[in-house]
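#structure-requests
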Amino acid sequence: MIVSCKEDALMTFQESHFSSDQNGLVDINIPVAQGEDSIATSINATIEKHIIYELLAGETEGINANTIQESIASFSKEYSNFKNDFPDNTPLWEAQIDGDIMFQSEAIISIALTSYINTGGAQGILHISIYNFNAQTGKTILNKDLFNDYDGFFKIAKMYYQKEFESEGISMESEKFTLPMNIGYSTEGILLLYNMNEINTFSKGPLDFTIPYSAISYYLNYQ
């Protein structure tokens, strides 16, 4: 009975698919919070706003997309305009966005959104964003508010970063070490993820490492 009550308290998500059916340029698969309450509405609004921003392409002035469907239509329109301007050599555009629930409890929900956008370049841009939501309000939690001692967490993160990557020949100068923009809860511990624009390395993709909960629980505001 206790287990059942706890399960019932968790927010329910359903995977939803959005695409540009006419040309197949856009493919989106994301978790959508179920329910009509303010918690679900807040979570879904944050995810929707992120996707609309990711799909902005070309000349964005005048584009006023308020929904995922409208942003897909705008992306397709920009591609059509591009194709009309360069009819002889028009590479196919592509937008793939996937969302995954990294962690969920009665206190916090961590969701990762992975986007790959290519608007005609030699290669597309891969970018991962992690959002942490207060499970009781649906509001996003800033990275600094995940911890009761941000400076203490910083020191431990720096130590784990050096341990994880120096053996691979990837390092960040000690005095230049910074925390990534994306920090979130996972089943194994606190995940820290650096996108390509945050790191000065020849890595072919984002870098990430996990600090086990056993090493970091003292600093967590959300247990």
